[in-house]
């Protein structure tokens, strides 16, 4: 997958106007230490807008950014007027076309927002965030005109306008600056009543030189104020995303923050002022006069130059740039030292905790402890997300066709939900993405079964997650899904699909290699096949054209058809590289034939000798991706996000291929179970002994390995009786003796970990029941001795390595 080269900037605040029509007394631009606004032009010029767009596109191209986020800001950006706002949007769209998707937003006080602006924003794809500090009394405490008049009624009118059905998709959310003199519940209730898509509560900007108000000398008034809202929000079922709460909850789970003011992620934001100068985060204006300045501008410096500024570099270093007190704090992963500007103190500048340190510590620990105090519901048999019979069959290590089919249906539902989440990431300016989503909506109504078949492709979820994590733009994948659905349904429609490195990806069907430097291709289904047009070229491909037929640029997915099982040999999908090992390229015809021959033998062995696994494999294993193993043998892998897929290098025999298949499909099944139920405490950071690994494993890795080795043990258990030749059967017996003992040890390690949930205890207990039943099966004394010796040596060597590493 394409990944940005780090470090990189992906968020840009573009000042289009440097004055404001309100006189908010808590404004950091005009009321705090920095006075640079006085010498800047009121509005940004057209020349600067064009150069800004080119600089951003230059940076996005170099760092392969899938999406660029730009916020039009001020002052008050609406004062720039519709023509200048249009010019800003069109310059950005021009420069970023074919480079990155553009997520364009505006932050406004709302008092000038009207239908004319909203129509412009619909056309240009600009989402709008509005500042509002709550109910009228709370809002009027600070957010007034210079003559003291209230702005509240006009802001409410603006929000009501954004809530109209025509404009609702423009509404990005509400931003509220905290004043602890205001009633927190009244503020929250007033904001929620406006049905915003998101609420962002912001700590007032302050430093150690100018600390925030703490009425009555309260120790943690800001944490207390936010906690009152948290309790009301939580009790109501968390009806709207609240960024500060969601960020704390995410960081407590080890995920990334949603805001720069929390967490340890490197800063990726820069500000461009109306005179074209680059500045660091606007919040630094609260520290001292000139604090955000870089001395650089869009005409003489690139964004990579800006990244080398000492202030920018400091904010790229995660925990390393924090003071000693912060580095030793138990909540540093969530707090992240707070907002950089809030650490400032004359004398040692930013080498301090946040001036809000007591509040941040109290807020994070209160949320953490409250979450921990709520017991995770333990489902009864009737409440299990999985059918009780399915759960028990899978826990034993098996699971037949019906059980695995139900797992597959649950996985498809997850993919459908992820697709809907991806649609929310389509920027209003992303017309290609919007068209693809509209077509998918139509296809879901017309041919839902065909669409579901494409969504069930194992590499749908890795793509969707890459979009949701900001590593890819949505339009290309959506168009690929739509095109594959149209082809499967034989619909006479044309779909335009962006190319990936000159390749047209048709998930589940194959890929078409195209020359000529085209950026996209038009795919059209017909009666006899489909047509691909790219640039001035055209390819006509028959529905039943052979795997290596008359159109050499067409690389269809090869299918292995066994008795009761059809599986794809997926060597075409550009997104298949999500396994531990590198993938092979397109298999040559003779190598594909060897795969088919070995799969014939492997499937025969599984069906006749391992029937407890065969039906599940047939129902759930959709594709095998060939891996490139170099000199290693028996290489295989499963990706937890790619349900229905395994990766494998073709081993030396069909027997070993059968082993790889049942082994890896265990991982696939367990990943689906873990999507449905929690089997262990995900916060457990301890490491455990795994008899098949040289390194200690986290609890999840140990569970996965143990579950997979049930199938490994069973394979050798059977092969000690069915392998050809005495020596082969003897070797299989030794393997069986070894793996049953070591898998039983791993089960005991899991059961003794103290970190399994009640359902996890039940699941692992049934795993143990399966393995313990094999311990009574007779094996030769030589095999027992060899197994005991192997286990003893492995544990002793493992212990020595662990102790040496401490």
Chain-wise SSE layout:
Blueprint: E1 11-15, H1 46-62, E2 67-73, H2 81-96, E3 101-108, H3 115-124, E4 126-131, H4 136-140, H5 152-162, E5 171-177, H6 184-192, E6 199-202, H7 221-235, H8 243-252, E7 269-272, E8 277-279, E9 293-297, H9 303-307, H10 310-314, H11 324-327, H12 332-335, H13 357-373, H14 388-395, H15 401-423, H16 431-446, H17 448-455, H18 460-468, H19 474-488, E10 494-498, E11 503-506, E12 510-513, E13 520-525, E14 529-534, E15 537-542, E16 554-556, E17 558-562, E18 565-569, H20 589-609, H21 611-620, E19 623-626, E20 636-637, E21 645-648, H22 654-676, E22 687-688, E23 697-698, H23 699-722, H24 726-751, H25 758-775, H26 781-805
Parallel strand pairs: 1-2, 1-7, 2-3, 3-4, 4-5, 5-6, 18-19, 19-21
Antiparallel strand pairs: 7-8, 8-9, 10-13, 11-12, 12-16, 13-14, 14-15, 17-18, 20-21, 22-23
Organism: Streptomyces mauvecolor
InterPro entries: AKG_HExxH, Aldolase_TIM, rSAM, rSAM_sf, rSAM_SPASM_FxsB, Sulphatase_maturase_rSAM
Protein name: FxsB family cyclophane-forming radical SAM/SPASM peptide maturase
Summarize the structure.
This protein has 806 residues and is of the alpha/beta class. Helix content is 44%, strand content 13%. The strands form five sheets. A nine-stranded mixed beta sheet has the order 6-5-4-3-2-1-7-8-9.
